[in-house]
Design brief:
With about 550 residues, the protein is α/β, with parallel strands linked by helices. The protein folds into three domains: about 5-105 and about 175-465, Glycosidases (TIM Barrel); about 110-160, Oligo-1,6-glucosidase, Domain 2 (Oligo-1,6-glucosidase, domain 2); about 480-560, Golgi alpha-mannosidase II (Immunoglobulin-like, Sandwich). It has 16 helices and 20 strands. It has helices at about 30-35, 35-45, 80-90, 110-115, 175-190, 235-245, 260-270, 305-315, 335-340, 345-360, 390-395, 405-415, 415-420, 450-455, 460-475, 475-480; strands spanning about 10-15, 45-50, 55, 65-70, 95-100, 130, 150, 155-160, 195-200, 250-255, 280, 325, 365, 480-485, 490-500, 500-510, 515-520, 525-535, 545-550, 555-560. It has an eight-stranded parallel β-sheet with strand order 11-10-9-5-2-1-13-12, with helices on one face. Strands 14-15-16-20-18 form a five-stranded antiparallel β-sheet. Strands 6-8-7 form a three-stranded antiparallel β-sheet, with no helix packed on it. Helix 7 (about 260-270) links the parallel strand 10 (about 250-255) and strand 11. Helix 7 packs parallel to helix 8. The longest helix has 16 residues, at about 175-190. The chain starts with 10 loop residues before the first strand and ends with a strand. Bound molecules: 1-deoxynojirimycin (NOJ). 1-deoxynojirimycin binds near residues 63, 100, 256 and 330. Belongs to the glycosyl hydrolase 13 family.
Length: about 550
């Protein structure tokens, strides 16, 4: 296998609960995935990233693991998983598993033991502290609301949980914990998995002493982020993990890293440091929230902010690290609703967004349903939502805000937007299940579904397929240097990639109106080739000056 094989690759993420249900219990499963592998292969992707399928009480849909070496009953058995892996490999694709080791479930055997007594051999697998003056050990707020500390009356101490109280944080200071994680990773690697997506991996090292966070407004709890994000030992831990495990396998790794900057990413992804191959940044996902607000305090996206940010990452990692490129995953709202126009221009804007992303330098990730332009959902009642983060926020926020206002934030940002079942066809429940789906299907499934997309040669699906095949045909898409054009324009997103004597120019209109595009006169070329476009364009049309229609995107290859 060639080293860095993942640089040419495209990844497709499956959120198993919502992908395809083969046994009618309303929950997606492994046999359901197997049924759809030909569909995924048809898109042309190389790697499947599978969100957690391990045993879990599902407080956070599998991101709370109670046994790392077992498959969740609802999803099937280890046999099903092995069959799935073999079928993926048979189709010449690879499998990236989710690695969730910042925390376990409180139902994990280690935690069950740890709770029992202060001198239990597993006690130190987690982070326990006595209370401080009758209160929690510090003032940090959990990502899902409330304190990060949960009191356990069995031993009269608190344990730390950055996410829900059913997700106690592992104590990475403890060498035994690290060894357990390495052994567990080897267990899966020896079964043949090809890589890991590492859940909030830059949270695993906490600052010594776990001090209170500054709290000028005297709130009950405040963000303790700077005490556990990119903590003091994070690079040591990742390098050790690489040395002990990854160095012995040809695998790909991507670290999910909220709060990581370009400077951090350079450290995490520089090849000679041997930590991870790429990271997921969150910066571009935070541009439509109010400064200093939470993700729920929304504001409209400014295109110039987005361009500035993406360009900073492109240039910052150029030839020194590697980017992962994404608009969507199981935690983010649907991009066509978020940054595009999911009404009059659903098809055009979905294709435009795909173009802007896939032509940048890095490894693109496609989240299930993105390839058919699935949209956000707006369920009438909060009772129809299932996500723990959404429900916790709602219960807190309705104490001070009007419920309708809170629902608006959920419509824009709630994680269930991404988790509604995959829309396969226009039959009942979108062909996802013959039973009652665990989360309601988006009512637009009659129009937006895989069957319809596969019948239409102009569909978003075939556009993604084309983008992926272009990556395989033109090395410039993988290797070319990035340069942003029209930095200050609020409608046009345009950039070039250059490689040897070639240039790629991406021209996109990020708006509902028409806009005039003028090719900078510094760009000189002999021949041009139109690689992809989402409106009819005559190949011979001049690009020195042209009108871009609403959400239009074109990519030309210019040769000198
Ligand atoms: C990030 C995952 O993507 C998200 O779904 C989960 O809730 C948290 N990490 C905690 O594991």
């Amino acid at each position: 296998m060639k080293s860095n094989w993942w640089k040419d690759a495209v990844v497709y993420q499956i959120y198993p609960r919502s992908f395809n249900d083969s046994n009618g219990d309303g929950i997606g499963d492994l046999q359901g995935i197997i049924e759809k592998l030909n569909y995924i292969k048809k898109l042309g992707v190389d790697i499947i990233w599978l969100s957690p399928v391990y045993e879990s009480p599902n407080d956070d849909n599998g991101y709370d693991i109670s046994d790392y070496r077992k498959i969740m009953n609802e999803f099937g058995t280890m046999r099903d998983w092995e069959e799935m892996l073999a079928e993926i490999h048979k189709r010449d694709m690879k499998l990236m598993m989710d690695l969730v080791v910042n925390h376990t479930s409180d139902e994990h055997h280690w935690f069950q033991e740890a709770r029992k007594s202060k001198d239990n051999p597993y006690r130190d697998y987690y982070i326990w502290r006595p209370g401080k003056e009758g209160r929690e050990p510090n003032n940090w707020e959990s990502v899902f609301g409330g304190s990060v500390w949960q009191y356990d009356s069995l031993t009269s101490e608190y344990y730390l949980h950055i996410f829900s109280r059913k997700q106690p944080d592992l104590n990475w200071e403890n060498e035994k914990v690290r060894q357990e994680v390495y052994e567990m990773m080897k267990f899966w690697l020896d079964k043949g998995v090809n890589g890991f997506r590492m859940d909030v991996i830059n949270f695993i090292s906490k600052i010594e002493g776990l001090p209170d966070a500054p709290n000028p407004e005297n709130k009950q709890y405040v963000s303790g982020e700077k005490f556990f994000i990119n903590g003091p030992k994070i690079h040591d831990y990742l390098q050790e993990l690489h040395k002990e495990v990854l160095a012995n396998y040809e695998v790909v790794t991507v670290g999910e890293m909220p709060g990581a900057t370009v400077e951090d990413a350079l450290l995490y992804t520089a090849e000679d440091r041997k930590e991870v191959d790429m990271i997921f940044t969150f910066e571009h996902m935070d541009l439509d929230k109010q400064k200093d607000g939470s993700k729920w305090d929304i504001k409209p996206l400014k295109l110039t902010d987005l361009k500035e940010n993406l360009s900073k990452w492109q240039k910052g990692l150029q030839n020194k690290g590697w980017n992962s490129l994404y608009w969507n995953n199981h935690d983010q709202p649907r991009v066509v609703s978020r940054f595009g126009n999911d009404k009059e221009y659903r098809m055009e804007s979905a294709k435009m967004l795909a173009t802007c992303l896939h032509m940048m330098k890095g490894t693109p990730y496609i989240y299930q349903g993105e390839e058919i332009g699935m949209t956000n959902v707006a369920f009438h009642s909060i009772d129809e939502y299932k996500d723990i983060e959404t429900l916790n926020m709602y219960n807190e926020a309705v104490r001070i805000n009007h419920p309708q206002q809170v629902m608006e934030s959920i419509y824009a940002k709630g994680r269930d937007n991404a988790r509604t079942p995959m829309q396969w066809d226009d039959s009942k429940n979108a062909g996802f299940t013959t039973g009652e789906p665990w989360l309601k299907v988006n009512p637009n499934y009659k129009e937006v579904n895989v069957e319809t997309a596969l019948k239409d040669p102009n569909s978003i699906f075939y556009y993604y397929q084309k983008l992926i095949s272009l990556r395989k045909e033109h090395e410039i898409i993988v290797h070319g240097d990035f340069s942003l054009l029209y930095e200050y324009d609020e409608q046009i997103f345009s950039y070039t990639r250059t490689y040897q004597n070639e240039m790629l120019i991406v021209m996109a209109n990020f708006s509902d109106g028409e806009t005039l595009f003028e090719l900078p006169n510094t760009i000189i070329y002999e021949t041009k080739q139109l690689l992809i476009h989402n409106y009819d364009v005559r190949e011979e049309e001049k690009i020195e000056v042209c009108i871009l229609r609403p959400w239009e995107a074109r990519v030309y290859k210019l040769i000198n």
